[in-house]
């Protein structure tokens, strides 16, 4: 699925894709926090990656399941190299979540996506700000149908090359 990946300062955008991960990709995810090999082998989960068009590196990964009426995000992670001293200028999670909102719509779930947040306030604040998610308790946040449409309209790329263009 084609997505638009903005920089954190929102001055530039890049074309990217969110797509199913392959077994060869999983072998490259060894320095990441989550065990993506286990997620990839899990029979009820789907693992997707975010890549910027024209680059080989995986910028982010997500593990999710189709639940009763929504998509449940188990894990969502930025690439390990985004945590170094020179952090990535890219917004990683919102384009991934927008793709999941579209998958939720395609599945007949009206765009509903539930995120496991592990009770981290900074993470909850991030999802509330950038993904319009609402805390529903039990370490979960929900992206409802309205928020889903906002994410889809902002981050799904229906065509056109915006790579490296200023957004003035």
What does this structure look like?
There is one protein chain. The longest helix is centred in the middle third of the chain and has 14 residues, at 93-106. Strand 1 and strand 2 (12-20) form a beta hairpin. Helix 3 (93-106) crosses helix 5 (145-155). It contains five helices and nine strands; from the N terminus they run ββααβββαβαββαβ. It is of the alpha+beta class and 168 residues long. Strands 1-2-3-4-5-6-8-7 form an eight-stranded mixed β-sheet. It has a single domain (2-156), classed as Gcn5-related N-acetyltransferase (GNAT) (Aminopeptidase), CATH 3.40.630. The chain has helices spanning 23-26, 36-41, 93-106, 121-131, 145-155; strands at 2-6, 12-20, 46-52, 58-66, 71-78, 113-116, 134-137, 140-143, 165-166.
Q: Helices, strands, pairings?
A:
Layout: E1 2-6, E2 12-20, H1 23-26, H2 36-41, E3 46-52, E4 58-66, E5 71-78, H3 93-106, E6 113-116, H4 121-131, E7 134-137, E8 140-143, H5 145-155, E9 165-166
Parallel strand pairs: 5-6
Antiparallel strand pairs: 1-2, 2-3, 3-4, 4-5, 6-8, 7-8
Summarize the structure in short.
The protein has 168 residues and is of the alpha+beta class.
Count of β-strands: 9
Q: Taking all residues together, what is the mean pLDDT? A: 88
Succession of helices and strands: EEHHEEEHEHEEHE
pLDDT < 50 runs, ≥5 residues = 159-168
* SSE class: alpha+beta
Using the coordinates shown, work out and report the CATH topology. Aminopeptidase
Q: Which sheet architecture does the biggest sheet show?
A: 8 strands, mixed
Instruction: Bin the helical content.
Output: 25-40%
Give the overall silhouette: globular
**CATH superfamily grouping:** Gcn5-related N-acetyltransferase (GNAT)
Tally of contiguous helical segments: 5
| CATH architecture assignment name | 3-Layer(aba) Sandwich
Cα distance spanning the termini: 26 Å
CATH class value: Alpha Beta
Radius of gyration computed on alpha carbons: 15 Å
Strand fraction band? 25-35%
Widest beta sheet: strand line-up: 1-2-3-4-5-6-8-7
Write down the domain tally. 1
